[in-house]
Amino acid sequence: MERHNYITVKEFCVSHGITSNFLFELHEFGLIEVIQQEDMHYLSYEELPKAEKILRLHSDLEINLEGIEVIHELLERIHRMQGEIISLRNRLRIYE
Predict the structure, then answer these.
(1) What confidence tens digit (pLDDT) does each residue in 13-22 have?
(2) Quick check: 45 and 6 in contact, CB under 8 A?
(3) Distance (Å, whole) CA 17 – CA 56
(4) In terms of residue numbers, what domain contains 30?
(5) 5-8 contact pairs (CB < 8 A, 24+)
(6) Longest dimension (CA), the chain
(7) pTM > 0.85
(8) Which CATH number covers residue 72?
(9) Overall number of domains in the chain
(10) Which of 13, 29, 74, 78 is deepest in the core (most CB within 10 A)?
(11) CA angle 44, 19, 67 (to 5 degrees)
């Protein structure tokens, strides 16, 4: 595991003023991926935007984890559908 591509859970929690338990709950819900290496837990830099978005939903809008899980699934579905629309538009351009 390349150390420069990850941040420790502790560092992330300190910088965002949250407890590590919250991140582990997000991991249990399948919303983020927490990686354990020896005795340390890490978040990849790719997970940071997702984790920060979830934190904003939870703290700013006071949405519980179940609601965040639903919102996350809907946003993922929208993202997949947008990709499909782009693909279909590109295929249609062939016939124009």
Answers:
(1) 999 999 999 9
(2) yes
(3) 12
(4) 3-95
(5) 5/44, 5/45, 6/35, 6/42, 6/43, 6/44, 6/45, 7/42, 7/43, 7/45, 7/48, 8/40, 8/41, 8/42, 8/43
(6) 59
(7) no
(8) 1.10.1660.10
(9) 1
(10) 13
(11) 80
